[in-house]
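Worked problem 6 (solution included).
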Amino acid sequence: MRSCRLTALGLLAALVAAGPAIAGPPLSPPAAARVNFIAPQSYVDGNLEWSSVDQRLTFEGLTRIFSSEARRALPPGTTIEIDILALDLAGKINPLVSRTGELRVMREDTWPSLTLRYRLVRDGRTTARGEQTLRAMNYLVNPRAARSGEPLRYERAMIAEWFRTRFGSSAS
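Solution. The predicted structure is:
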């Protein structure tokens, strides 16, 4: 019994000593997104006299969406830098329906849209860049977005689709 214990301790010591050799090369950090909101006062939804809290929550939500989609779609060690140039959220605020101006009414002609400029960086080098306008004209028929309770569900679906088509991700 004593020899088994010593053998196990010896094996454990050998594994600890060989740890770095067994582990292989260091892993790259996950893909990341850096999002900048350029001239938000010119956004369609920026002119609706958002409270600073609403604007902050919307921008934080969009930043989270871009970050999670980047982690799914891009290879580790890649950063995508995104400048949001124009933004029109899904739906429109209808002041006749809501006295507070906080109720967004979704209709066929109020699809989400955003214009962005992006730059993909890997190992300090720019590997891709471009400017695109994303639109989700059929946003109301997206069953996954319609079932979601997320505040920016239609924008998430639109951004996820852009990552899938632009960067070839199988992310859902």
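Discussion: The two ends are 54 Å apart (CA to CA).
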